[in-house]
Amino acid sequence: MKKAYRLVEVEEIIGEMDFSEVADDVMESEEDYQIVISGWWVQIPELGLNLHEGVFCNYDEAEQMYLPDCAISIVAEAGEETKEGDWLYYEQDGFVLTLANFLRGKMDMERIEQLSCFICLPETEADSDE
């Protein structure tokens, strides 16, 4: 059974967890940039959305590799595992502000902060006892 959290507290809780065993995924890749997302995610059942942490990387010609540029938060539809190109929105902010900007005023900030959410890992995705 998954433990429910409030969205406003989940990033701090995630910061204290060890996800070193969870592989990251490439969300999008082009010649000059790549977006890598966490293999874990935060599910918000009320909105049918998932949130991922990610890193926007630019291709460095001198190093001949993608190098991290900035941390981002990604909004994706809940359900299927997020595959390359399957995202709705991303920006260089935390989960609450990113979600607020994605919703474009359809929900006030206090309500967004209090949304119930779950931290999900790939192997526990199907375990929804809720």
What attributes does this structure have?
130 residues, alpha+beta, eight-stranded antiparallel beta sheet, 8 strands, disordered C terminus
What does this entry show, briefly?
Helix content is 18%, strand content 38%.
Could you characterize the architecture of this molecule?
The chain is an alpha+beta fold. It contains three helices and eight strands. Strand 2 and strand 3 (33-37) form a beta hairpin.
Structural class: alpha+beta
The N- and C-terminal alpha carbons lie at a distance of 7 Å
What percent strand? 35-45%
Global geometry: globular
Number of contiguous helices: 3
Give the oligomeric state of the chains in this entry, treating copies of one chain as homo and distinct chains as hetero: single chain
Mean of residue pLDDT values: 89
Q: Which radius of gyration do the C-alpha atoms yield?
A: 15 Å
Helix content bin: 10-25%
Q: Give the total of beta strands.
A: 8
Order of helices and strands: EHEEEEEEHHE
Largest sheet, strands/sense/barrel = 8 strands, antiparallel
Uncertain runs are 124-130
SSE layout and pairings?
Elements (H helix, E strand, L loop, with lengths): L3 E3 H9 L9 E5 L3 E5 L3 E4 L4 E12 L4 E13 L11 E3 L3 H9 L5 H5 L2 E5 L10
Antiparallel strand pairs: 1-8, 2-3, 3-5, 4-5, 4-8, 5-6, 6-7
